[in-house]
Structure prediction request, 331 residues.
Amino acid sequence: MLPVGLRISRRRALTAAAALVAFGMLAWWLLPFGRTSPSGELTFSTGSRSGVYQRYGVLLEEALAKDMPDVEIDLITSEGSQQNLARVASGEADFTIATADAVATYKRDGLPGADRLRGCARLYDDYVHLIVPQKSPVSSVRELRGKVVGVGQQGSGVRLVADRLMTAAGLDPQRDITPVPAGIDTMPGRLENGSLDAFFWSGGLPTNTVQELSERFDIRLVPLEAEVVDKLHATGDSTSYYRSAVMPADAYLQAQGGTPVSTIAVANLLVTTDRTDPAMTEGFTRTVIDSRDHIGNTVHPAQLVDLRTAVYTAPLPLHDGARRYYRSAKP
Prediction:
């Protein structure tokens, strides 16, 4: 039999060893062992200066700077989804945001670099707005005939969906209206001064620029009924990403008068290419998910970014780095 002192020492050693094992397992669970911080440069193409993409991008840049301090980040504004996709596909930008319908159209048309596009995350939904002065007689898309209409810039997702909506309503977007290729930074002012009769916008709820317009000028949101979505779906695969939706009654209190408004919605995707380093993509995707609440306090649509749905990036395959993040994430 071992002496008492030796038995106690052995018991203490075993206890200490068990504690070390438990600590090691806890540390493995809590600490990011094996996670390397990427380094280098990346360019993020956002949107128009007063749009949701740009405001989201500015706050995301701050979060990325904290999470990936060795990465130099350059934000560049754009006309919107279509230009964003062209930039990423060509290598002019590394990451961007684009609507799923714009992505599907880019792929369907076989535009340069389409096969290299990859998804990182499904973000929040854009809601299509058709905005007119409160006293306007326009109550449907088809009643835009003969009007001067803001349709979004040529490279924007707004332009894509506006043209499709008018076509579905039986209008020729070039002949039956006077199209004004302007962005959200100028369309509200043009409606206010009378140089536009209406304008289209597609963005998260609420869009600050629209909110501010409603607080200084009487506007109304024209409903986009479910039958319009059915007609859009009938035109081809790239329109299958539109869905019927409802703007909540409190999205724009002054403009809606406490009444929900029927519309269509489409998901936004965080997009990169297969050229992007997996570690960079993993880190970028992690920051997008982790910064949701902080960014959402300022850019409200960001509150809807959800780990459970972010992985669904159709029509794009998931980037390997993003997949690595989702496999390691703990819901």
